[in-house]
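Q: Convert this sequence to structure tokens.
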Amino acid sequence: MDVKLPKIADGTEGVVVSIMVKPGDTVQSGQTLLEVDAGKAVAPVASTAAGKVTAVHVKEGDKVTVGMNLVSLEAEAGSAAPAGSPAPSAPKAAATSRRPAAVLEDDDDEAPAPDAGEEGPIPAASPYVRKIARDLGIALSRVRGSAPGGRVTVEDLGRYIARLERRVARAGQFAEEPKGLVFEPVNVDFAQFGPVTSEALTPLRKVIAARMVENKVSLPHVYQFDDVDMSRIESLRAAHKASYEKAGAKLSPTPFIIKGLVAALKKHPRFNSSLNEVTQTLFLKQYFHIGIAVDTDAGLVVPVIRDADRKSLLEIAVELSGIAEKARDRKLTAADMSGGSFTISNQGAIGGGHFTPIINKPEVAILGLGKTSRKPVVTDKGIEPRPLMPITVSYDHRLIDGGAAARFTVDLVKALAEFPEADVQL
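A:
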């Protein structure tokens, strides 16, 4: 049997970043065979049966698409996929036969065209539709059929052509960029200047690098700096730390920051939005899915705390412990890291002050946190030592003006400095 790439997150393709098996290995049902970078997440691909690996059809760095054969197995008799594991992809025509044409009208996730010499199953179509497709040079195996049984209609051909036109238009946006944005790659023999060591970039690091360049270049970043007086939060942590430990949670500053951030986002909904760059439409999200950037040995990952506005401080604290453990063990799934509406990058445990984090596109802002340290602060009582946490709000200046960023930051600082004890009590 073949293990194929299931649908990963919201996409249909990814890059192989690691392979855990080789031909001849014996694997168990549900065992991770390889990992695929799906954009924001590194998704494990598990074996759908127990047996012996007979072939590995990909290598690290390969681009793969949904339904592609990854690993071949000689399955044990009676072996079955574990509950909850992704099933091998079915032919696209069969999968779409139950979908109404209205859904396909604006759908732009047409399966990638097969490689040269590789054609998928040809769906049913009338002789008239087949003639039109032949005259236009369209392979019917690449078109979704909306009629019963996956049959392709003339309207389906029209939608397919419209999708191709939109893709060409989007590609043209990049092709028409000024030449000043095109940089010559660095290709220097640094050994001529002195002793060096070298290491090849891993496929995952290449993906991260490309994503960071795209986010930094395509979004006009502006930065708002401030400091948060953490006296209130430190006092609340000291008072409730023991009760939270009895409940099985570590009461770190991060749950407080998430709750304070949600309060600020509710007052400033534009910071919890995303822009559809094709339709030029801004979507103000009614949900609060907060991404937490986590530094791991494999690279940066961003698991998401979903519906943070509906969860108590205890629930958030427990969930943070769980995702930290999954991140260390590299067990985060694509679903764990998709759908975020705002991201927090916290370097406080490492050290340092203000820094300028890169926005996690398609989000429009990100919050960077530095290390809390005691500094002199002028108050009504004179000069007092206070624990101050440096923060930075990076925002997309296409959508957010400086005044709005300043107001958002002021409200965020206030929400944290005046955190209500009622939100901490169990």
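The mean pLDDT is 82.
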